[in-house]
Design a protein that fits this description.
The chain contains 13 helices and twelve strands. The chain is an alpha/beta fold. The protein has one domain: 3-Layer(aba) Sandwich (Rossmann fold), CATH 3.40.50.1820. The strands form two sheets. A ten-stranded mixed β-sheet has the order 3-1-2-5-4-8-9-10-11-12, sandwiched between helices. The chain starts with a helix and ends in a 5-residue tail after the last strand. The relative contact order is 0.12.
Length: about 400
C-alpha cells in the first residue's frame, strides 16, 4: 500500500514540474478498444427543464433544472481527427473528481493523457433505419463519463446511449457559458433523524428520476425534429434500456418503475437503501439484472434488494462479482492497478472484469431491447470463476 511519504514525494514531483517521472512511476493504461463494427460518435447538449424548479436552489425561485447531457452513437465514418478527451474542462474537474474517489490529485491529473475511442459530431450510421436507446445514470458524486469504456462497447454494437450529469449530484457540472455547479448532495451535518435523512434522499432520487424522464422527452423531440438531421428519426424510443452505478442504480430502478418507456434495467452495485417502500413492495415488471459486490456496510441495502426481487414479476437476477468493490464498476481500475493499492478496488483483473461485464451488458440488452440472440447468464457464470448468480426467478435457462 502507498504510504503518506510516497504520496507526499509524488505530489512534490508534480509541483516542481516532474510530471514525466510520475507517469513512469504510475503509468495509466488506455481505454480498451471496443469490439463492435461501428465507429463511435459523440455530442453534448445543454438542456433546461423549465417545468421544474431546481430543488437544490431553495432560495432562488427563478432557477430551473439544467442538465449537461452527452450522447454516444454508432457511425460508419473512419475519422481522421483525434478522439475526444476522457473529460472536458479538465483543470476544473480534477480537484472535484479526486475528492469524490479519494485519490490524490496527481493521479487524476494524469487522465489528461487518456483519450477515448469516440469522435465529436461525426455523422451517424445509415446502416440501420433506427438504433435502440439506452440511458446511463452515474453514482453519488460521479459523472456522466465515468463508465465510458462500457458505453463505447455497447455503442460499437449498435446502441445510442445518453448520459447526464445529475446537477449538484455530479462531482461538478459545467455549463457552456462557464457556470459551475459543484456537488452538494451530502446530508446536512449533524443530522441524526433517520426519517428526515431518508426523506432528503427520496427527494434527490425523485429529482434524478425526473432527469431521466426529461432526457427521454428531449430525445423524442430530437427524433421528430427535421432541423436536427443527426438524430432525426434515428432513435428507437418505444423500448428503452437503462443502467446505472450506485445511486444511478437506484435511479435506474426508480425510472423503470415510473416510466413505461423503460423496458429493461441493469444495475451496477446499486444503492437499494434509498429506494422508497412503495417501489420495494410493488417490485418491477420489467426485466431486471443486478450485479454487485458481496456486501455493503449497511445490511439494509441487501434487505431492500431482496424485498424488491421478491415482489418483482418481471424476469430478474441477483449476481455478484466475488471480491469486487464499489469502484470496480466504473472505468477507474481500467486506468491503473494502483486503485488496488489504495484499496478502492478488489482483486479481479480489470480486463477480465471489463470483458465479463460487457458480455452480461450486451447479451442482456440484445435480448430484451433489440429482441435478438439469447440471454443465458448461468452459462457465463459457469465459465467465470468470480461471477456467481445468487438468485433468479427465470426458469428458461
Amino acid at each position: 500500500m502507498i504510504n503518506k511519504k510516497t504520496i507526499f514525494i509524488l505530489n512534490l514531483l508534480l509541483c516542481i514540474g516532474c510530471s514525466s517521472i510520475v507517469k513512469k512511476v504510475i503509468p495509466l493504461s488506455p481505454l480498451p478498444t471496443p469490439t463492435g463494427k461501428y465507429t463511435i460518435g459523440t455530442t453534448q447538449y445543454h438542456w433546461l427543464d423549465d417545468s421544474r424548479q431546481e430543488w437544490f436552489s431553495k432560495e432562488d425561485t427563478t432557477d430551473f433544472r439544467e442538465l449537461m447531457v452527452q450522447i454516444w452513437y454508432p457511425s460508419d465514418q473512419k475519422p481522421t481527427e483525434e478522439p475526444v478527451a476522457y473529460m472536458d474542462f479538465l483543470e476544473q474537474r480534477i480537484p472535484e473528481v479526486a475528492k469524490q474517489v479519494g485519490l490524490p490529485k496527481f493521479m487524476i491529473t494524469q487522465i489528461s493523457e487518456i483519450s477515448t475511442n469516440s469522435y465529436y459530431d461525426i455523422p451517424i450510421s445509415n446502416k440501420e433505419q433506427q438504433f435502440p436507446v439506452l440511458i446511463f445514470s452515474h453514482g453519488l458524486g460521479g459523472m456522466r463519463v465515468q463508465n465510458t469504456a462500457y458505453i463505447q462497447e455497447l455503442v460499437s454494437h449498435g446502441y445510442i446511449i445518453a448520459a447526464m450529469d445529475h446537477t449538484y449530484d455530479a462531482n461538478i457540472t459545467i455549463f457552456p457559458d462557464g457556470r459551475k455547479r459543484l456537488y452538494d448532495s451530502n446530508l446536512p451535518e449533524g443530522l441524526t433523524d433517520s426519517t428526515e435523512a431518508y426523506n432528503i434522499r427520496y427527494k434527490q432520487l425523485n429529482a434524478r428520476t425526473s432527469d431521466v424522464v426529461f432526457v427521454l422527452d428531449e430525445l423524442e423531440k430530437l427524433n421528430s425534429d427535421k432541423n436536427h438531421p443527426q438524430f432525426f428519426n434515428k432513435l428507437k424510443l418505444d423500448n428503452v434500456g437503462i443502467f446505472g452505478h450506485s445511486f444511478g442504480g437506484a435511479t435506474s430502478i426508480s425510472t423503470a418503475y415510473n416510466d413505461p418507456r423503460i423496458t429493461a434495467c441493469f444495475t451496477l452495485d446499486a444503492w437499494f437503501e434509498i429506494i422508497p417502500h412503495h417501489i420495494l413492495n410493488s417490485g418491477l415488471k420489467t426485466p431486471f439484472f443486478h450485479l454487485g459486490q458481496e456486501r455493503w456496510k449497511k445490511p439494509l441495502n441487501y434487505k431492500n434488494r431482496d424485498n424488491l426481487i421478491k415482489n418483482s414479476s418481471g424476469p430478474n437476477w441477483v449476481s455478484t462479482f466475488l471480491g469486487s468493490k464499489h469502484f470496480d464498476y466504473i472505468d477507474l481500475p481500467l486506468f491503473t492497478n494502483y486503485t488496488k493499492r489504495f484499496k478502492l478496488t478488489g482483486e479481479i483483473d480489470p480486463i477480465a472484469f471489463y470483458k465479463t461485464l460487457n458480455e452480461l451488458h450486451l447479451t442482456f440488452f440484445n435480448f430484451y431491447i433489440k429482441k435478438i440472440d439469447t440471454f443465458l447468464p448461468k452459462s457465463i457464470d459457469e465459465k467465470i470463476s468470480f461471477l456467481t448468480i445468487e438468485n433468479s426467478n427465470n426458469t428458461t435457462e
